[in-house]
Amino acid sequence: MDSTTKKVRPGGASVLDLDLKATVGGGVEDAYGEDRATEDQLVTPWTVSVASGYSLLRDPHHNKGLAFTFKERDAHYIRGLLPPVVMSQELQEKKLLHNIRQYQLPLQKYTALMDLAERNERLFYKLLINNVEELLPVVYTPTVGEACQKYGSIFQRPQGLYISLKEKGKILEVLKNWPERSIQVIVVTDGERILGLGDLGCQGMGIPVGKLALYTALGGVRPSSCLPITIDVGTNNEKLLNDEFYIGLKQRRATGKEYADLLEEFMSAVKQNYGEKVLIQFEDFANHNAFDLLAKYGTTHLVFNDDIQGTAAVVLAGLVGALKLLGGTLGDHKFLFLGAGEAGTGIAELIALEMSKQTKAPVEETRKNIWLVDSKGLIVSSRKDSLQPFKKPWAHEHPPVTTLLDAVKAIKPTVLIGTSGVGSTFTKEVVEAMAEFNEKPLILALSNPTSQSECTAEEAYKWTQGRAIYASGSPFAPVEYNGKVHVPGQANNAYIFPGLGLGLVISGAIRVHDDMLLAASEGLAGQVTKENCEQGLIYPPFTNIRKISAHIAANVAAKVYELGLASRLPRPENLLKHAESCMYTPNYRTYR
Hints:
By secondary structure, the protein is an alpha/beta fold. The strands form 4 sheets. A 7-stranded mixed beta sheet has the order 9-8-7-10-11-12-15, with helices on both faces. Helices cover 42% and strands 10% of the residues.
């Protein structure tokens, strides 16, 4: 099976066409034994030296606030620096959750949580893990979108690395300024296409910070081994360029050779500083750069684009889950996308690959079940000469169609998927047309944040008389229609990327291959229970996300070993237990 990604790589190179002698270097060492120690063993709160006194209370990695025992307060010179009460972590969590619930605005809750992360790292992750369904929309979409828009105003202290054009020629030195040396996962953005909000420049840092918080909370990757990075090449956003509080470079975006040279220096410096096995996740790059970067570095680095590949894997898992409600196989269904950018074409390609795997038909054949609509209408063969390269595989024989409604009527899809980034584009007429020829129309309105969703859950259920199977990118509340409560699904990338990342890390993967994405998708789909299906859910509840991530990690790691792309040898006998044992837990440690 050849993917589109493989085809756009120079010479058709694949990640499997590598000299595996180039797998040495990198790796992450638990230098202080904190993660190997059991919870009742004593650990030393190392910084550069042993943290003690006032500095210990200001160190988020080791600070426990009022949970320090009197013995610890004496040993580390903090008696008298805290009120005379010892509070359990559970009680601290309860108090903080109560305080956060008092805030009326989601952005206030976001800043309160970010402040907590800067004060007490373990309590932040304890709170997030134990209340994931309530707090995920705060640290991630939709609230993180508003946070990015206002990042210049709410910025207080650095949470990651900023690499701008001013650092050209010095990027390796900049990487060495980061206090942690053992990095496993980097999430990097250039801020050009933040969610559905457009070019936010340097203020896009909220996205890597939020993503890596989820790598830890949901996937169990150690926070000390995560590095958020924003590459600032300017912005074309006039509002930001004229904003006196904007924190980035006040210039138009660099393009062409200047941009490519900066990215090349960055990628080389990352490998030189952190080794071969550091996972680099590209996040919210614009289409014209995202595909090129993935193709260029896919055979030389361990890279992954969440917008193209993560979204695709989570949507494919939802489609597989939906088959339990719709019946048939993927090959029996017809798919229509509104949006033909990174997300749309990435999802379409993974669906085509999975159908090819199931039916043994060439991927060129399975693509014919999938149709895409962009801003100019249905993508058809008569438009091929004017299409961008990543759209050309989806140009099928068909008369021109200019509107989504006409495309729905002409193609008669069983599945309608929105990745347009434009809100309210699944109109009443479009949804009603889907319901005319489908008993259970499957409608996925995936654009983020909530304001950009192609239609709301209430609209989907109302316009189909409660027959729709619906999922969105950002969360919607349950909807009551004709006496029945419908619980909308959330096709959230957070289902996939934390487990995928964990699987790549624990196997010591050196490259990401399409089959690993299929393995992640299958791992997620396998967690949808019969009870979930009876409720009309195509995804499992987020309350089980750590367990789900462990299963995905085990599936991915198994595929890495199978493909011969693993460097952590020998292969563990039970990959699920191994994944669970590697996951970070935020419980407080006892200091000697």
